[in-house]
Amino acid sequence: MISDSFLPNLPILLETKPELFSPAVLQDLLQTLAPLENNPPDNAEQILREWCKSQGLRDELRNLSENYKPELNKVKPSEPKDAKRPTNFFQELSQQVQDKLEQLEQQNQNKNKQ
Question: What is the pTM of this model?
């Protein structure tokens, strides 16, 4: 579970503002997430926070948090479909970043064919 109030918004930011994430930024994020995926160290959140700061995304995450806070407070927390399944925020984020990179590569290939 992530205790930082802004980091859970990183996947939302990735989907809603893809222009903030160039292929180079996505590659850098993947490299940052790689050592955090399987056995996150105690300072894993700090590592990701520092990465967000270095990319200038902290303010974007803060703004997103403020924009979504009223809606999030209205939603009643629900049990995961498989409560026994451990969730790893870093693995899930890494997969989303990988998917976004593949999507960008596909778009670039399609542009080159035209």
Answer: 0.76
